[in-house]
Amino acid sequence: MRTNNIERYDNFLSSLRAPSSSTWSEAQESALLEPYTYITANPGKKTSDKLIEGFNFWLNVPKDKLTVVIRVVGLLHNASFLVDDIEDDSQLRRGIPVAHKIYGIPRTINTAKYVCFLALQELSALRPTMQRRTCNSSAGPDIRLRDDSPAADSERPGFPKRLISDHDLDLVVTDELVSLHHGQGLDILWRETLHCPTEDQYVQMAKGKTGGLIRTAVKVMMAFATTNANVDYIPLCNLIMVYKW
User: Fold this and answer.
1) What is the predicted pLDDT for the residue at 11?
2) Whole-number pLDDT of residue 153
3) Which long-range contacts (CB under 8 A, 24 or more apart) does 201-205 make?
4) Integer distance in angstroms from the first to the last C-alpha of the chain?
5) Does residue 66 contact residue 233 with C-beta atoms inside 8 Å?
6) Taking CA 32 as the corner, what is the angle to CA 31 and CA 35, rounded to the nearest 5 degrees?
7) Which residues on adjacent β-strands are paired with residue 93?
8) Considering the entire predicted model, what is its pTM?
9) In this structure, are residues 202 and 209 in contact, taking their beta carbons and an 8 Å threshold?
10) Which of 245, 223, 226 is closest to 234 using CA atoms?
11) What pLDDT digit, counting tens, does each position of 105-147 carry?
């Protein structure tokens, strides 16, 4: 009995040392994502995908990177639906009951937040290999940054300077998520306080609320464009999304 207790204690200590991801199972992942898989099982019109394809006619992003962009925007888009339906007290989404009416509000909110972080993980596949840390001694004081990536596009003769760098992807996505929450927050505030905004205020709200995700996609695409890399497509994005709203 004493031996069994010691072995059990040793196993427990081993599990504490192991990273959390090593004990996370596919069944747990599937259960956690149920509200998300529920809403994505009934897809909408895929307007965002079509807009991305349209902008790619000008930008010609490599296929592997474009696939990641579409995946990231899809994750963020559907995660936002899960939260929006709670905030708006919606009953239906795409003709079926909203996720939180089936899975509950706490579980749906947690899933939506989790999916946002999955999107950021997906985004890491697009980050350049530049700025890897190398250490010249085992003691570690002499740590320097070395550029292991190919020459930047801006250093290539004849290649136009990009408006958005592929080193700024985290900032791009974070800024647009902040903008999205600004727009959604104002929309909720005005609704709850019975405030009627001015036309200019309403347009700014719509730009943030509806334009954030498509701007995210286009900005990331601009960072990897093989043509028209120095053209600013963001005003067109804003015009499309304000018209759509």
Assistant:
1) 64
2) 53
3) 203/242
4) 68
5) no
6) 90
7) 96
8) 0.79
9) no
10) 223
11) 999 999 999 999 999 999 988 877 654 333 343 333 343 333 4
CA 24 – CA 21 distance, rounded (Å):
5
Full 3-state SS string of the chain: CHHHHHHHHHHHHHHHHCCHHHHCCHHHHHHHCHHHHHHHCCCCCCHHHHHHHHHHHHHCCCHHHHHHHHHHHHHHHHHHHHHHHHHCCCCEECCEECHHHHHCHHHHHHHHHHHHHHHHHHHHHHCCCCCEEEECCCCCCCEEEECCCCCCHHHCCCCCCCCCCHHHHHHHHHHHHHHHHHHHHHHHHHHHHCCCCCHHHHHHHHHHHHHHHHHHHHHHHHHHCCCCCCCCCHHHHHHHHHHHC
Beta strand pairing status for 143-146 and 132-135? antiparallel
| Whether the Cβ atoms of residue 96 and residue 42 lie closer than 8 Å to each other | yes
The burial of 138, by beta-carbon neighbours within 10 Å (0-12 exposed, 13-18 middle, 19 or more buried), is given as exposed
- The pLDDT of residue 115: 97
**Which amino acid does the sequence have at 155?**
E
**In this structure, what token pair is assigned to residue 144?**
């320097």
Backbone angles phi, psi at 171, to 5 degrees: -65, -40
Phi-psi region of 210 (alpha: psi -120 to 50; beta: other; left: phi over 0): alpha
